[in-house]
Amino acid sequence: ISRCADRWSQEDMLTLLECMKNNLPSNDGSKFKTTESHLDWEKVAFKDFSGEMCKMKWMEISNEVRKFRTLTELIMDAEEHVKNPYKGKKLKVKP
C-alpha cells in the first residue's frame, strides 16, 4: 500500500528540493540527467521519506516542471547554450 503520493506537503517538497541542492557537486556543469543519476538519494532522504521515495517524488516533480516551461524560457536557455555550448570533458592525451 503506497500512501507516498498523498502525504507530500508543499513544505516537504521544498525540503526535498533543498536537500537535493545541498547534495549537488559544487562544480555542477554536467547535463542534469548525469548529475541526477549520481545523486546519493540516501543523503537526500529526510523525515520518514526514504531515498527511493525522494527520487520518485523528484521524477514526478521534474516531469511536471518540464511540461510547464514557456517558449520564452526555452529560448533564453537556448541563447545561453549558443553563447556557452556544453563542453564535454576532454581527455588529456599524454605526449
The mean pLDDT is: 82
Number of domains: 1
| Number of β-strand runs | 0
Number of helices: 5
Largest sheet: none
Straight-line N-to-C gap: 60 Å
Question: What does it look like?
Answer:
- The chain has 95 residues and is mostly helical.
- The chain is built from five helices and no strands.
- The radius of gyration is 17 Å and the shape is globular.
- The N and C termini lie far apart (60 Å).
- The model has no long low-confidence stretch (mean pLDDT 82).
Give a brief rundown of this model:
With 95 residues, the chain is mainly alpha-helical. The protein contains 5 helices and no strands.
Task: Give structural attributes.
95 residues; mainly alpha; UBF1; nucleus; DNA-binding; DNA binding; Nucleolar transcription factor 1
Topology:
Elements: H1 10-22, H2 32-38, H3 41-44, H4 51-67, H5 71-83
